[in-house]
Write a structure and sequence with these properties.
It is a single chain. By secondary structure, the chain is of the alpha+beta class. It has a single domain, classed as Glutaredoxin (3-Layer(aba) Sandwich), CATH 3.40.30.10. Helices cover 37% and strands 12% of the residues. It has five helices and four strands; from the N terminus they run E-H-E-H-H-H-E-E-H. It has a four-stranded mixed beta sheet, with helices on both faces. The longest helix has 12 residues.
Length: 119
């Protein structure tokens, strides 16, 4: 299991604490320091069943600078969004947990974190 975190994020710290309390084995990826590649991001999006705009933090200053709210949200626009997320990882919603069984969640709630824990 891997969790993408920003250590300054309260929800990330909470998710890590829940994993620790459950005794889960996981690796931490500080995705601001080690941004995902376009290939990795596409794989995570596929596992999530989401589009890149679904996991974009549009309230971030860089999102406003880029004008993301005006960008198209059609399949033809997908690569543009992925390029923006790879170039500006701060735009990626967090934390994201990828479990070994293929389950992947944006773990912003305790229920989402629990959904990836072994039964």
């Amino acid at each position: 299991m891997e969790i993408w975190v920003n250590p300054a994020c309260t929800k990330c710290r909470s998710a890590v604490s829940m994993l620790d309390e459950a005794g889960a084995e996981y690796t931490v990826r500080k995705y601001l320091e080690e941004p995902p590649t376009a290939k990795e991001l596409k794989a995570v999006l596929k596992r999530l069943g989401l589009e890149p705009w679904d996991i974009t933090r549009t309230a971030e200053a860089i999102a406003k600078e880029l004008g993301l709210k005006t960008w198209g949200r059609k399949p033809a626009d997908r690569d543009r969004w992925i390029d923006a997320l790879v170039s500006h990882p701060k735009l990626i919603q967090r934390p994201i947990i990828t479990a070994d069984d293929g389950t992947t969640v944006v773990a912003r709630t305790p229920e989402a974190v629990q959904s990836v824990l072994p039964g």
